[in-house]
Amino acid sequence: MEEFFSQAYVTLFIIIAFGMIIGRIRIFNFSFDISAVIFVALFLGHFGFIVPDNFMKVGLLLFIFTIGIQAGPGFFDSFRKYGQTLILTTFISLSGATIVLIILTKTFNINPNLAIGIFNGALTSTPGLAAAIEVTNSPLAPVGYGIAYTFGVIGVILLVNILPKIFKIDLKDEELKFEESIKSDFPDIKGVNLIVENPNIDGKKISELKIQKMAEVVISKMIHNNIVYPITKSSKLQTGDIVRVIGIDAEIEKAKILIGNITDIEFPPTQMFVTEWILISNKKIVNKRYNEISLGKNYNATILKIKRSGIELTPKSSSQFKYGDKVQISGEKASLNAVKNILGNNEKKLSHTDFLPIALGILIGVLLGQVDIPLGRFTLNLGMTGGTLAAGIILSHLGKTGPVIWSMSGSANQLLRELGLLLFMAAVGTKAGITFLSTIKEYGFELILVSVILTIVPVLLGAIVGKFVFKMNFLSLLGVITGAMTSTPGLAVVNSKSESNAAAIAYATVYPVALVFIIIISQILPKIL
Fold it and tell me: CATH class for domain 198-260?
């Protein structure tokens, strides 16, 4: 029996099973969730149970790559759109934590490898810990991580609860302000009926008018001589015709100048034309522009709206098909069946996980991590961790390379990410458990004090900068803080206080930035401390 329990794979599943059980225990509405696995691993590691390093490396690669795949589609847009507010706040917050770490390490004469682990534990950054382990090759880094992680998790949860009270903020008011700002960024798309009144367009074809150059709208159908017709490039508009125009208010106003005013005349019901949402699941058309497929010319079908990541967008001829998009299409019932075959409309196919992109992407990431990048006096090597993360972000942003689709369903991504994290924490924890207690005895109170300070400083610094310098919406600011601290439990607390997705959007924006920043800092710190 002793031989059975000493086998690595048995130890692995004991750690995972008991870690998950303990992680589900709630005390004052708080639980460690999956993070409890590392504490079980530390405990068993102290008694000589070991999970081999190969499990750690496989788990790390899966975990990091799936994070990159998840973050990639919005990563570069986040830099463009929020670079001067959310991301800069994150940099200031984490830079403050880095400076404080250096000061405290020198003050208390803490082992540098241990200090780097405390840094990542206080920021609850497992990828950062992985980078630190790779650079230092020291068991002290995960020991520091294990000590500081508890304060990192609990501290962020406590702080996001009390920050609104400190700054005297009503989160409901912030929620209303955010909803108003969203409407201005992504106005509702609606449809109106316009009567053709402009004599300058009488008798002209749609292709001649080039309406989308003047107004970003879609014309889906028309009434001519009391008969409903689909709109094609060769359709002619005549005075008195009624056209269905779809777009946001501002663009519809432009269309009215070109075509004519809104009319109360409705389109009669007809079985000839139907409107349906169709899922993009055909890999062959991914990244192709809408005008390359020519649905209007070939099938008398018109794309009215695009739904991507929960946001509705107005289509343009230059818009690209993205895997997993939903497009609202109007056309003849018979032709829409052919359109579905072209676009895919196969939810099963979308949920299927193709392991080829995963294996290729991780391999590219590992190779990328071998490249040395000169940074002044330092040479930065992304290593296995940073290279894999960068590969995931870049490849998922591209979406498709040749026949390979660099994406996976949300459920598949979550499963592989959690599996990788479990393998990584189990292996790291048992290795760190060997020296855990002896390190506590040697450093004692000093480590706890440093851990608490490193958790509090970036949160308060981020809150002050975001509130008073950038005058950020406070829900978004709480999302930035939890994202900078890579604290999913902290985000869960913020979400429980509001029905708005303000915090979640900000969290998703800065989270990959924080990951990259912490990984880079974790690789530079050994040369500074």
Answer: alpha beta
